[in-house]
C-alpha cells in the first residue's frame, strides 16, 4: 500500500495552511462515538442492554445478532460480543434477560436535548450550558453533578461514570443517597435524643441519691447531738 504524505496532515486541512486551524473534536463529538452501537453504527436505540463484558448494544440489535445466522451466532443460547468477542450466555429469557443500562439511556436523552438546543442557532455559544444553580462537574464542565459515587463517596456526573475516573465505581442517584443519608441522620438524632433522656434520668437518680445521703447524715448528726445533751 502506498501512503501519501498529504494523508497525514496532523489536524490541518488545506484551509489551515492559509492560517486557520481546524478545531479539534469537541467533547460532544467524542460522546457521540461512545454512544454508537457497534452493530448498527447509529446512536443506541432504547432499550440499551449491557453485556457481562460491560459493552453496550441496542436490544433490538442484540436480538438480531442472536437470531440471525452470522459468524457470531452459536447454538445453546450463546453469542459473542461484536466488540471484544466475549462469549455471552443467555438464560431462558434470551436478550430480554440482559440488564438494561439506564445510565446510558439517560445520557442519550441528555445528549439529544443538548443537540436540539445547539441546532436552534448557528453560534457556538449555544453549546454552553444555561445558567443554573446546579453544581457542574469540574472534569466535564458542561455536565451537571447528577449521580453519587458510592465507592469514592463523592458526587459526580454521568460522563465520569461512562468513561471517566469513576468508570469502575459503584454509583447511585443523588435522590436515593439523599434519602439514605437523611434516614441515617434522623436515626442518629433519635439515638442522641434517647441517650440524652437516659443520661438525664441517671443524673436525676444521682441527685436524689445525694439528697438522701445528705438527709441521712443530717438526721444522724441531730440524733448524736440529742444523745450528747
From TrEMBL:
PROSITE patterns: ZF_BBOX, ZF_RING_1, ZF_RING_2
Stored SUPFAM superfamilies: B-box zinc-binding domain, RING/U-box
Domain of life per record: Eukaryota
Coiled-coil regions listed: none
Subcellular location: Cytoplasm
Assigned GO CC terms: cytoplasm; microtubule; nucleoplasm
Residues covered by region (Disordered): 114-136
Transmembrane feature ranges: none
Assigned keywords, A-Z: Coiled coil, Cytoplasm, Metal-binding, Microtubule, Zinc, Zinc-finger
Sequence ranges assigned to domain B box-type in this UniProt record: 132-174
A GO molecular-function annotation: ubiquitin protein ligase activity
Compositional bias per record (Polar residues), positions renumbered to this chain: 114-124
Domain RING-type intervals: 37-85
CDD domains according to UniProt: Bbox2_MuRF3_C-II
Biased amino acid composition, Basic and acidic residues: 125-136
Primary role: May bind and stabilize microtubules during myotubes formation.
The name this protein goes by in its record: Tripartite motif-containing protein 54
Amino acid at each position: 500500500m502506498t501512503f501519501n504524505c498529504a494523508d497525514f496532515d496532523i489536524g490541518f486541512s488545506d484551509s489551515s495552511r492559509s492560517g486557520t486551524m481546524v478545531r479539534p473534536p469537541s467533547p460532544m463529538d467524542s460522546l457521540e462515538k461512545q454512544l454508537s452501537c457497534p452493530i448498527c453504527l447509529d446512536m443506541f436505540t432504547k432499550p440499551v442492554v449491557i453485556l457481562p463484558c460491560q459493552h453496550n448494544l441496542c436490544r433490538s440489535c442484540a436480538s438480531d445478532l442472536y437470531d440471525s445466522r452470522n459468524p457470531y451466532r452459536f447454538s445453546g443460547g450463546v453469542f459473542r460480543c461484536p466488540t471484544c468477542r466475549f462469549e455471552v450466555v443467555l438464560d431462558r429469557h434470551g436478550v430480554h434477560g440482559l440488564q438494561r443500562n439506564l445510565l446510558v439511556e439517560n445520557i442519550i436523552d441528555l445528549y439529544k436535548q443538548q443537540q436540539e438546543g445547539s441546532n436552534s442557532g448557528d453560534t457556538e455559544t449555544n453549546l454552553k450550558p444555561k445558567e443554573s444553580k446546579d453544581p457542574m462537574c469540574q472534569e466535564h464542565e458542561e455536565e451537571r453533578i447528577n449521580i453519587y459515587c458510592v465507592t469514592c463517596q463523592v458526587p459526580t456526573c454521568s460522563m465520569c461514570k461512562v468513561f471517566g475516573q469513576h468508570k469502575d465505581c459503584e454509583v447511585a442517584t443523588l435522590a436515593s443517597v439523599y434519602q439514605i443519608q437523611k434516614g441515617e441522620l434522623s436515626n442518629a438524632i433519635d439515638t442522641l435524643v434517647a441517650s440524652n433522656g437516659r443520661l438525664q434520668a441517671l443524673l436525676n437518680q444521682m441527685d436524689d441519691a445525694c439528697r438522701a445521703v445528705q438527709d441521712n447524715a443530717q438526721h444522724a448528726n441531730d440524733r448524736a447531738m440529742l444523745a450528747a445533751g
